[in-house]
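queue> pop job 88
queue> type: inverse folding (structure -> sequence)
queue> payload:
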């Protein structure tokens, strides 16, 4: 019998999007026929549920039914409510309402018996009761139990979100309105941006910002911290008790020198005070890079993507707040108006405060100019563990032909390093499409992707090339792993729900480079379908 380690590896592959490889590991460990181990059966149920989410129609219902059966067997071994409630909900989704209600009744009986020795928190025990009530059609009782559960853990936002997602699936399957869930949703996530030339003591602007944060029930804010509107919004978020997550285009000292100090007044002191209170401070890409339009755009995309990701994680909503001078803000790339246009292109809701500029930016705040620097996605493709490098190299023409047939255009000539093939693509969506296209041709291959500032004249250069090769070394066979910069930029784009990424770990450290606390080390698995 396989111990916990193989199960952990199997779940890790599933989270990385390598579902086929997870199944191969599951079968290779001889676990497919196991019927007397609750942990193995629960993992089997999870793999079948993941497979079902990727399917449609009758195939989805069949897989959900098999997942329900696996969870049900796990629950029957030790009468644990976690697998039993999963079995009950999946039975409903599989089109077996009678089995669902029978299992839900067993869950309630288990909870009411007072013999529940499971290590669940009070929140989960009460939320499980609420889910069972809903499956039994007792909507009012479910509402009361859900209210009681959330009162037991009022800030357990991720747990609340997990419960709300389950409830939404149940209500959809039953053909019932889910609007009554809205008051239970966690606070909203905000991406914010604004111009630098606002008065230090603009009380009207401050009042307008606070009113929006209060009315919209904002609990999480994502953006930069330049002098002016950024600092005023960040202060308002902290005043309202929201979590502040700063996303800077360069390291904090370089950003302070370029975007805060030149404006004089008390902006620098306020910048320092906010840094001390922020929940997180992240510098995207290379913290030592110059402050230019590509790095501004990268930071804006990352902040937008983080707001979207947080809202998605918490089953809540994301919105954007822009402070603009309607008479002066126009087509400039990398600024607030650019961020607003990008946000709107994704169909997300936004709010604008019109605030005329108090003064022109000082000359010291100008951006670096280098036309050879640009934002691109960089992908590294590696052979599977049992493939020789020369054989993988022989596949390259076929892989490139497949990209051409899919309408994907490379931004620079491909580079073969003897260990991997490196490709440059225009944006995260193009890279995600390319990765899925090539994964279908090279099932045991490994893919790593980053998004950042590169130079492709006279040849492709830049930090993303080093990062994708470092990341590729830890990518499981059959998986696509991406950096946080890539995942967040993908989240910020249109149709981001079509490209789900799930956090799976951290970037392996560079051997010779010192660790930088401001760079987000998280890596994500991009699902293949």
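queue> result:
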């Amino acid at each position: 019998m396989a111990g916990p380690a193989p199960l952990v590896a199997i779940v890790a592959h599933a989270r990385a999007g390598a579902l086929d490889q997870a199944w191969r590991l599951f079968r290779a460990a001889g676990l497919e026929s196991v019927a007397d181990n609750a942990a193995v059966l629960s993992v089997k149920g999870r793999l079948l549920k993941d497979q079902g989410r990727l399917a449609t129609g009758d195939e989805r219902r069949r897989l959900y039914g098999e997942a329900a059966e696996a969870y049900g067997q796990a629950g029957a071994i030790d009468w644990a409510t976690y697998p039993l409630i999963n079995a009950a909900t999946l039975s409903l989704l599989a089109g077996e309402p009678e089995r669902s209600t029978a299992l839900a009744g067993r869950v309630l009986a288990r909870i009411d018996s007072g013999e529940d020795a499971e290590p669940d928190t009070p929140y989960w025990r009460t939320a499980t009761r609420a889910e069972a009530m809903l499956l039994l059609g007792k909507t009012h009782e479910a509402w009361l139990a859900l209210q009681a559960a959330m009162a037991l853990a009022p800030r357990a936002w991720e747990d609340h979100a997990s419960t709300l997602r389950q409830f939404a699936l149940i209500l959809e399957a039953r053909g019932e309105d889910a609007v009554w869930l809205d008051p239970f949703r966690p606070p909203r996530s905000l991406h914010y941006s604004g111009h630098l030339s606002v008065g230090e003591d603009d009380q009207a602007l401050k009042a307008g910002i606070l009113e929006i944060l209060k009315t919209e029930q904002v609990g999480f804010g994502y953006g930069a911290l330049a002098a002016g509107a950024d600092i005023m919004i960040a202060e308002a978020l902290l005043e309202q008790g929201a979590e502040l997550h700063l996303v800077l285009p360069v390291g904090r000292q370089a950003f302070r020198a370029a975007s805060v100090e030149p404006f004089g007044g008390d902006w620098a002191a306020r910048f320092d005070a906010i840094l001390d209170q922020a929940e997180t401070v992240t510098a995207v890409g290379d913290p030592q890079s110059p402050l230019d339009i590509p790095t501004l755009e990268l930071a804006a995309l990352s902040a937008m993507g983080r707001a979207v990701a947080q809202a998605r994680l918490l089953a809540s909503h994301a919105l954007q707040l822009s402070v603009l001078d309607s008479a002066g803000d126009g087509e400039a790339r990398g600024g607030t108006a650019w961020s607003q246009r990008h946000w709107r292109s994704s169909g997300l809701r936004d709010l604008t405060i019109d605030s005329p500029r108090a003064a022109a930016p000082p000359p010291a705040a100008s951006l670096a100019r280098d036309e050879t620097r640009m934002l691109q996605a960089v992908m590294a493709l590696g052979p599977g563990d049992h493939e020789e490098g020369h054989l993988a190299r022989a596949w390259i023409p076929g892989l490139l032909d497949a990209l051409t047939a899919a309408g994907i255009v490379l931004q620079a000539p491909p580079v073969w390093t003897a260990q991997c093939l490196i490709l440059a693509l225009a944006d995260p969506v193009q890279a995600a499409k390319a990765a899925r296209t090539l994964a279908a041709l090279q099932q045991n291959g490994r893919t790593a992707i980053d998004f950042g500032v590169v130079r492709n004249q006279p040849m492709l250069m830049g930090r993303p090339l080093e990062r994708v090769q470092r990341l590729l070394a830890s990518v499981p066979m059959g998986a696509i792993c991406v950096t946080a910069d890539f995942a967040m930029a993908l989240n910020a784009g249109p149709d981001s729900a079509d490209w789900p990424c799930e956090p799976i770990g951290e970037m392996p450290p560079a051997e010779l480079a010192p660790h930088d606390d401001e760079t987000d080390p998280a890596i994500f698995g991009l699902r293949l379908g």
